[in-house]
Design goal:
Layout lengths: L17 H6 L20 H7 L4 H6 L1 H15 L4 E2 L6 H5 L3 E3 L6 E3 L16 H4 L1 H13 L6 E6 L1 H10 L7 H9 L1 H25 L3 E6 L7 H19 L6 E5 L6 H5 L5 E3 L6 H8 L4 E6 L8 H15 L4 E5 L9 H20 L3
Parallel strand pairs: 1-4, 4-5, 5-6, 6-7, 7-8, 8-9
Antiparallel strand pairs: 2-3
This protein binds coproporphyrinogen III (CP3).
Length: 360
Amino acid sequence: MKNDSAPLPTLLPADAPVFLRACFRQPVEHTPIWLMRQAGRYLPDYRAVRAKADFLTMCHTPELSAEVTLQPVNLLGVDAAILFSDLLIPLEAMGATVKFPEGGPEITDAVEQASDVHKLRTPPAIETLGYTAEAVKLIVAGLPAHVPLIGFAGAPFTLASYLIEGGGSKNYQKTKAFLYQHPAEAEILFDKLVTMVADFLNMQIDAGCKAVQIFDSWAGALDPEDYERWGTRYTRRLVQAVRRPGVPVIVFAKGTGTYFDRVAASGADVLGVDWTLPLNVARTHVGPDFALQGNMDPIRLLGPFEQVRATADRILDAAGSAGHIFNLGHGLVPQTPPDHVKRLVDHVHESSAARHRAGG
Ligand code: CP3
């Protein structure tokens, strides 16, 4: 399919960071790699910072956020950094109370009944989330020139699910029932989320992010028609509200392999792929107009490294030559051996460099 939402083709200089060139499907000397949750509890260096500050304090404090964002860049040699924050941070600006107890996030003062959507605010991001812009500036100042910073935010459906469920969920029953029972209020809610998130992402780009990723982590809970209505439609508006020449937009909608063309219809430059959809199959669904990012199962890294290496090579084979950013199909888990992550980064660099030299 054609990416009819992309701006004029972006031609980056040959010495632009390899991650950005891959996002625009330009020639690269090796496949770039970064990993979702690359800053996190599997890293002893992260745990050392986390021992002194709780998670929300880390998200709210530019110096701490910058410190842990830079850790995996220095330790692993990844080709991009991702801002250390959390998906739920902008919900605080909208009036919700967000907490992170041991068992996962808890959101209160959110959407308990349909009329609560009217109470949610959409203040200017710079006034309420300015600490994130400060973190971006500190991170950019500390990064090597060839490593761009990725900003991020949640897609409306995934954020709405936290506001409505009050936390994580197994089947998203409350969220989906809300969409079916209160479609008018749901539209108001999704409109507000687009407004808040677009402003938040634009603030991150203004502060120095060179790419942005929109996480629709729980999109796979929707059937294809509902994804069209509550996923594609709003994600597409978000993509259009933040896109600028030279700043790729990545959409990662997990669990959507059977209707991946509807994810591509968001008009993103890069589509995140989870491990249930081989990259060569994803390519046949969307054609050459998109870069693909993915798609190793993060739990693979808990197995023997020989298997990790073989899986990485299979992924590189399936990706083909142009427009691939190596990543996982979801975030690294705390039990991951850091050594396996480092060896994966090195292996992807070496193995892909040989392929690119061979022209394949
Ligand atoms: O390295 C990075 O990827 C950047 C930082 C980042 C975090 N969360 C740090 C984090 C990013 C990009 C996120 C996004 C996020 N947060 C998503 C979308 C991606 C995904 O995983 O699908 C979602 C759904 C959340 C919500 C969230 N935050 C949950 C469900 C949890 C609890 C589960 C867990 O892993 O603990 C969090 C907490 C969280 N976010 C931690 C980190 C490092 C752990 C907090 C701690 O240190 O105790």
